[in-house]
Amino acid sequence: MKKRQKVILYSFLTLFSLVMFYPFLHMLSATFKSNEEIFSGIGLIPNEFSFSGFINGWAGMGDNTFGVFLMNSFKLVIPTVIFTIISSVVVAYGFARFNFPLKKLLFTIMLATLMLPQAVVIVPRYLLFNKLGWLDTYLPFYMPAIFATFPFFTYMLIQFIRGIPKELDEAATLDGCNSFTILTRIHLPLLKPAMFSVGIFQFIWVWNDFFNPLIYINSVDKYPLALGLRLFMDAEGSIVWNEVMAMSIVTIIPCVLLFFFAQRYFVEGISSSGLKG
């Protein structure tokens, strides 16, 4: 009886996963189809395979190839991720291990910003960055990351550091280590899973971000992938959907590869930081 129940359960889960996975398969198959064939049915196998979607899509729009947008995304995302990890670790270490005036108040304010919608701060941020002359550059992404303005990551790392026994800090102090040495030699090796989690989250969020680059970046030659992909739908005339689908596949590949290669650290970081359900 139990064996039959397992067969039914696994069959249902397999069928459900195929239904959920079908949109991605349809997008993948659409890259090899013509516009007419894409909208002619729901079949996944093209009548005639064509790689024109990848070839023409990579050629991009105007003077900018899709490779330019890809490199712009890396220029935008990688420094932002690195700065986020470093600043979040430093701030989290301070909250988790030190006592200082107004600590509880500052911690409460930090948590309160988690509930602050981005729409509330987008106008003052734009005015500030405009006065500083940072518009049409990547500084509106770098500088907030340098100053640890992502409270979700800070809170996650605080929870992780609180799980590290304080006896390790005390033993290191007896050996002559100062606070900075304790952070670099004791905590950072133990924080590796949590830092991987922060890096994966931030990479995916910034990589897929459309709204903020649209607000702060004006030059087409500085567009990341999200804005570059939108150009295919702004072109005059009909939209060539196989090119849009092909470049969408190219866009999601880095996120998928990052998640699969760092999945072990990601799961370990989440389960050890107090954020698990």
From TrEMBL:
The chain crosses the membrane at residues 7-25, 76-96, 105-127, 139-158, 190-207, 239-262. SUPFAM superfamilies: MetI-like (SSF161098). The keyword Repressor does not apply. It is a multi-pass membrane protein. Its main location: membrane. It holds the Pfam family BPD_transp_1. It is found in: Cell membrane. Belongs to the binding-protein-dependent transport system permease family. The keyword Nucleus does not apply. This is Carbohydrate ABC transporter permease. Residues 70-262 form the ABC transmembrane type-1 domain. One of its GO terms (cellular component) is plasma membrane. Keywords: Cell membrane, Membrane, Transmembrane, Transmembrane helix, Transport. One of its GO terms (biological process) is transmembrane transport.
